[in-house]
Each structure stands twice: as C-alpha cells, then as structure tokens.
C-alpha cells in the first residue's frame, strides 16, 4: 500500500502566524487569554493551554489579563469593548480576513447590502458582518437564498467566507443573480476566498483522483477541513475525516493500493506525522498478513 500526501496541506500561514504571535505574547506576559479557540483544532488548543494560554468565551472572563484576538478576527464592537476594558490586546487576525472586513465596511458605506456566503455561526463570518454596520447578512447555502428578505437594497455585494471552495462560491453567485435578477440594479462580487485554502483544495482534488481512499485530518469544527473532505468526496473517492491517528479503522485499508492524505489549514504538523506513522504501521501489518 502506497501512502501519498497532498502537495499542499496543513497549517496555513495565517494560523501559523497567529499561533507564533500568541506563543510569543504568552512568554512575555505569562497569562494570555484568547476570545474563543485559536483554531478549530483540539490538539493545538491543548498545546497552547500548556503554555499558559486560556480560552475564554466571554469578555467578562478576561479579568484584566491580556487578550488575543484569534486569526478569525472580530467585529469593531468587540474591539471597542476591549478598548473600554483597557487590557493589552494582541491582534492575530489573519490579513486575508482583515481584507474581507475592510471590504464589508467599505461596501456597506457605499450603500450596498452585503451578503456573506458563509456559516452565520462561524467566528470569521460574525466578525465580517460586524464591519458591515447592520447592512450585512450571512447565507450558509444557496438554497437559503429564496428566504432573503424582499426589502433588500437593489445594490448587492457578495463576499465569501474565506475557506469556501471556488466552485461553491461561483454556484452561489450564479444562483443569486438568477433568482433575484429583476430586483438587482448592481451586483458586486468580491473574491474573498483564501489562496491558502483554494491551493490546498486543488491539491486534495488532484490527489483524490489518483488514490483509492482519502484520509482528511483536522478538527471536526474546522470549516476548511470539512470543505477539503467535500472536495475529495466530489471526486467519488471514499473519504474519511479524522481528528487523530487512533480513529483510523484497519478495514478502511484492506485491498487499497494507494491511500491519499491531506490536512486542513488548522491541523498541526505533529497530527499529520502521527497519522502517517499509523498508516505505515497498519500497511506493514496488512502486508505481513497477506504474505503469511
Ligand atoms: S485559511 Fe487563509 S484566511 Fe484562514 S487563517 Fe489561514 S491563511 Fe488566513
């Protein structure tokens, strides 16, 4: 059994930068908090916790300690609340997310209704909506477009959650235009997809076409990891989304010639190494059983 890794996978530059900034801040301050999890990956959160970085769900739990804004970013209301608290703030918002936020602010100011194609409960999307100053609305799925309120302005701008696939964003925009054409006087589409994730998705797709099984590693809450698994399944290959090496079932591998491995942008290198080591061990056992 051959194990092949995707040519682009794992920690993206935005997550790596955020983790490094937090580790440095924790070394200097000794007691750092983050507003929500740094990334949607349990293992990374646990490692940061060991370095004194505590996740808090609410501003009330900060208790005067320095606070880090995660790579997903926050809305201006949260920044203002942090200013009022007067605590040191380490802003690790990914520059690509900052760009989405700036677009949302600018388009709302110009009078557009700002539609964000993304999960309304996702941190990045909530933050971007915050910058749209009450003119933003998040839509998770193109099927939900039919439920858009009738009273929306006729000038509509569309952004995407950074981790969506190109194909889904294109389909969403097409569907929006087709279903509301007569009510739209101007449609602006800003490509806010992240190159890091589109490159990883292209690499996963290319690999999925030439293997018998795909293993996608990453947190279950991680949107970009889920999208990677989606891309692989769309290629018709059996795909398993796992968080850790011990979730691999030996029967998945029986009779497989080539197994592909990829990992989401919030998946640390050590998690990938553990999965590959486990796959190699299982492959060796299967080979030994075949020979005996
Ligand atoms: S996936 Fe892209 S947008 Fe998100 S943190 Fe990584 S580099 Fe930034």
Question: Overview of this structure, please?
Answer:
The chain has 292 residues and is α/β, with parallel strands linked by helices. Helices cover 44% and strands 18% of the residues. The protein has ten helices and twelve strands. It has helices spanning 13-29, 42-50, 76-85, 95-109, 123-131, 166-180, 195-208, 223-234, 250-253, 269-291, and strands spanning 2-5, 32-35, 53-56, 67-69, 89-91, 113-117, 136-139, 155-160, 186-189, 213-217, 238-242, 258-263. It has a four-stranded parallel beta sheet with strand order 1-12-10-11, with helices on both faces. Helix 4 runs parallel beside helix 5 (123-131) and helix 7 packs parallel to helix 8. The protein binds iron/sulfur cluster. Iron/sulfur cluster binds next to helix 1, helix 4 and helix 7.
Summarize the structure.
The protein is of the alpha/beta class. It has 10 helices and 12 strands. Iron/sulfur cluster (SF4) binds at residues 12-15, 71, 94, 96-97, 162-163, 194, 196-197, 224, 265.
């Amino acid at each position: 059994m051959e194990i092949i890794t995707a040519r682009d996978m794992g920690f993206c530059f935005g997550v790596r930068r955020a983790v490094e900034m937090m580790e440095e801040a924790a070394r200097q301050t000794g007691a750092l908090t983050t507003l929500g999890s740094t990334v949607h990956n349990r293992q990374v959160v646990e490692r940061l916790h060991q370095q004194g970085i505590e996740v808090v769900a609410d501003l009330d739990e900060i208790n005067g300690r320095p606070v880090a804004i995660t790579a997903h970013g926050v809305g201006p209301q949260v920044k203002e609340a942090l200013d009022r608290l007067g605590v040191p703030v380490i802003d690790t918002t990914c520059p690509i997310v900052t760009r989405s936020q700036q677009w949302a602010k600018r388009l709302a100011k110009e009078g557009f209704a700002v539609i964000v194609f993304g999960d309304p409960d996702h941190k990045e999307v909530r933050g971007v909506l915050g910058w749209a100053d009450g003119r933003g609305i998040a839509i998770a799925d193109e099927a939900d477009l039919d439920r858009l309120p009738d009273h929306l302005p006729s000038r509509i701008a569309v952004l995407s959650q950074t981790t969506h696939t190109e194909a889904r964003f294109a389909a969403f925009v097409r569907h929006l235009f087709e279903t509301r054409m007569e009510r739209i006087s101007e449609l602006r589409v800003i490509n806010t997809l992240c190159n890091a994730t589109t490159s990883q998705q292209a690499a996963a797709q290319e690999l999925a076409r030439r293997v018998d099984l795909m293993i996608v590693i990453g947190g279950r809450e991680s949107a970009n990891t889920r999208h990677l698994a989606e891309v692989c399944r769309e290629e018709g290959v059996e795909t398993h989304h796992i968080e850790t090496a011990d979730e691999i079932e030996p029967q998945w591998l029986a009779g497989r010639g080539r197994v592909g491995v990829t990992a989401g942008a919030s998946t640390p290198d050590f998690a990938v190494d553990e999965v590959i080591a486990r796959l190699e061990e299982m492959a060796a056992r299967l080979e030994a059983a075949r020979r005996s």
